[in-house]
Amino acid sequence: MEIEHFVVRARQFDNNEPNKTTANKLALELAAHLNFLTTTDIGRDRQKEHANTAFRVITMLGIRLGLTDDDLELGLHSPAAAEPILVQAGFECLVASFGAVSDKKQALRNWLQAVAMLKAVLVYRNIDFNKSLTDFLIFV
């Protein structure tokens, strides 16, 4: 699955959304999905559902923050941290996503950190990043 295609589809989804969700609401939605991924002992299928939705939300958050396609693709291409500690990675992802919303000057840096930490959570849960992107395209 090509990340460039994923970003194009996410932009199309954003353009077709009649009532655009605010960046603050997207960050809160991401928090809810990360909470499930990091603190709840849930089945594998539910983990994948939350992971797929978290990727959709974090990409939409990047779009709401005004990041370019190149910035989005770079963030999604970048590798995750090695051997993450699950709760810390989830917390860091949330801090970075809320930082991206509140600090416009550092939006890109914070968003890239949020993406890296989300990937770290997925590595810990053994959820395939590329499969999550493919599932998002099927969902949209």
C-alpha-based Rg, rounded: 14 Å
Largest sheet: none
Helix percentage range:
over 70%
Number of domains: 1
How many runs of DSSP E, i.e. beta strands? 0
Rounded to the nearest angstrom, the distance between the terminal CA atoms is 15 Å
Structure classification: mainly alpha
Number of helices: 7
Mean pLDDT: 79
Low-confidence segments, given as residue ranges, are none
Please trace the helix and strand order, writing H or E for each element. Answer: HHHHHHH
Please state roughly what percent of the residues sit in beta strands, choosing from under 5%, 5-15%, 15-25%, 25-35%, 35-45% or over 45%: under 5%
Q: Which overall shape is indicated by the principal axes computed on the Cα atoms?
A: globular
Give a written overview of the molecule.
The mean pLDDT is 79. By secondary structure, the protein is mostly helical. The chain has one domain (3-15, 25-139). The chain has helices at residues 3-16, 23-39, 44-64, 69-77, 86-102, 107-124, 129-139.
